[in-house]
Each structure stands twice: as structure tokens, then as C-alpha cells.
Design goal:
- The chain has one domain (3-292).
- The protein has 12 helices and no strands.
- It has helices at 3-54, 64-89, 91-98, 101-111, 119-137, 145-171, 177-192, 207-235, 237-241, 243-258, 265-282, 288-292.
């Protein structure tokens, strides 16, 4: 990666890791449907306003079908799943499961013929999914239906994120990351807007709640996703999405140190297994053949 790509990678890891705390606060104030919907519209509006102010031309009409797919998966599907699940399983557990996104990304890329599977990749997939079993099967909290539902929702969110990233890499090559981000978040907000009728805002949010929401929309969505989709175009979907490993570390530290969320030794072992598997899948650990050579 270039120095610019590396700086973007580190920025995404830190900001998205901290976003779990902001998401939890926004869900408490606005409900999971409101938190996602308002975040999406704030992110899209931010980019549109900046584009108008700077004379940048956004081309949202030509690729609206692709933007709708990315908005339904990477934006709406991922954020709804995470916001729904976090109150059930906690930020630390959610963040660890988010590390599975590169596993799903590799599988989808293989099915689409974008990437090939080697022995290293297969070993990584086995380790990764074994880590999921350990993580979910040996929790530090009671094994309840709500815990299982939260884990399932988070894994569904991860699958959506992986699909959308691969789709963007495959269908939106050459499209500006500004166009992709603005179009995807606008579509994501439109998809989740009807959910407010089923899950209305639970009460009267406080001024600090609006501050969290603005930070989520402006910094943790508009700014970060412009950088992320640029990385997808420059280094590929699987490598770009490997930033979720570092995101997991930051978010787990936030959950454990600031929110005092418990993790069992088995869960820590499961998390390490997932990260090792993902590192093999994404090539962060060189192949054994290359090492011996």
C-alpha cells in the first residue's frame, strides 16, 4: 500500500472502532431504526452539501441500481444488523464477530471468480469459522435466545458488508468514492425509513444524543466511507475490508475498558482464532511455501 492508503487504513481502524460506542448511544436515544436512518441521511446530506459548496459534481443518477445494491447491503443491512444486535450482545462481542467480514468477502469473491482459493485460504476459512463456533458457544454471559438472535443478526450484518464490498469492487470500478458513498447512504436511508413506523424513536433525545448522531453521520460515515470505497478501488475489496481486524481490536478495548463488558477466556481464544484465519485469507500472513523459499 502507498503511504496515503496506509494512512487511510489506520484512520478507518481507529474511527470505526470508536463508532461502536457512538452507535450504542445513538441506538439508546433513537432506536435502532432511527439511528440507522438518520445516520444515512446525515451522511448523504453532508457529502451533497460539501460537493455543492466546492463545485464537485456528484453523478448519482447513472449508477443508481448499483448504489441501491450497495446501500441495501453494506449500508442498510450492515448497520441495521449491528445496531439491532449491540444491545443484545454488547459492543465487544459485536466487534469480534465483525472480524468475520473478510472471511465472507473471500468466499463471495471466490464464488464470483474474482479470487482463487489456495490451501492457505482454505485453512484460514476453517480457522475463522471454528473461531465463530468457539465465540458463540462459550459466552461470558448467559446463553439465551436473545444472545443467539444478536449473534445471528451480527453475522447477517457481516455477510451484507462483505457482499456489498465485493459488489462495489466488481460493479463500481472507476466510479468516484464520493459518488458511491453519497449514493449508497442515500439509498440506505430510503430503505430503512419505513422501519421507523415499526420501531419509532423511543423518547425525547437529549442534545448530546444529537451530537453522537452527527458524529456518526459526518465523521464515521461520510468521511470514512469515502476513504473506504477509495481503498476498495485501489487495493481491492478483500484487502480493504481486512481493516476490520484492527477495528475489532479498538472496539473490544472500548467495550472492555469503558463499558466493562465481560469476555470469557474461551471467547478471547475464539477471537484470536478468527483473526488468525482472516489473516491467512487476506494474505497478511505469507504463504508457507513462500516462507520456506
Amino acid at each position: 500500500m502507498t503511504a496515503k492508503d496506509s494512512a487511510s487504513y489506520v484512520f478507518l481502524a481507529v474511527v470505526w472502532g470508536l463508532s461502536f460506542l457512538a452507535m450504542l448511544r445513538a441506538v439508546e436515544a433513537f432506536g435502532w431504526a432511527g439511528a440507522v436512518t438518520f445516520r444515512c441521511f446525515i451522511a448523504a446530506a453532508t457529502l451533497i452539501i460539501i460537493a455543492v459548496a466546492t463545485g464537485r459534481r456528484l453523478k448519482l443518477g447513472a449508477g443508481w441500481r448499483a448504489f441501491a445494491v450497495v446501500g441495501a447491503t453494506t449500508v442498510a443491512g450492515q448497520l441495521v444488523g449491528l445496531c439491532f444486535a449491540m444491545p443484545l450482545i454488547g459492543t465487544a462481542m459485536s466487534a469480534i464477530l465483525v472480524a468475520t467480514i473478510p472471511l465472507f468477502s473471500m468466499l463471495i469473491a471466490r464464488l464470483w471468480g474474482i479470487e482463487t482459493l489456495t490451501r492457505r485460504h482454505l485453512l484460514g476459512l476453517v480457522l475463522g469459522f471454528s473461531g465463530i463456533v468457539i465465540l458463540v458457544g462459550f459466552p461470558a454471559v448467559p446463553f439465551t435466545p436473545s444472545f443467539v438472535l444478536g449473534c445471528a443478526a451480527t453475522l447477517g450484518a457481516c455477510l451484507c458488508a462483505a457482499f456489498g464490498s465485493c459488489y462495489a469492487s466488481y460493479k463500481l470500478k472507476g466510479v468516484s468514492s464520493w459518488d458511491t458513498t453519497a449514493g449508497a447512504f442515500l439509498a440506505g436511508g430510503l430503505f430503512t425509513l419505513p422501519l421507523l413506523a415499526l420501531v419509532p424513536v423511543p423518547g425525547t433525545p437529549q442534545p448530546v444524543d444529537y451530537l453522537y448522531l452527527m458524529i456518526l453521520g459526518v465523521v464515521m460515515s461520510a468521511a470514512t466511507y469515502v476513504l473506504y470505497f477509495r481503498l476498495v478501488g485501489t487495493i481491492g475489496a478483500t484487502k480493504a475490508i481486512s481493516v476490520e481486524f484492527a477495528v475489532t481490536v479498538v472496539a473490544v478495548l472500548v467495550g472492555a475498558l469503558l463499558l466493562r463488558e465481560p469476555l470469557s477466556p474461551m471467547q478471547i481464544g475464539g477471537a484470536a482464532t478468527i483473526i488468525l484465519g482472516c489473516a491467512l485469507v487476506t494474505g497478511l500472513i505469507p504463504s508457507f511455501a513462500r516462507q520456506s523459499a
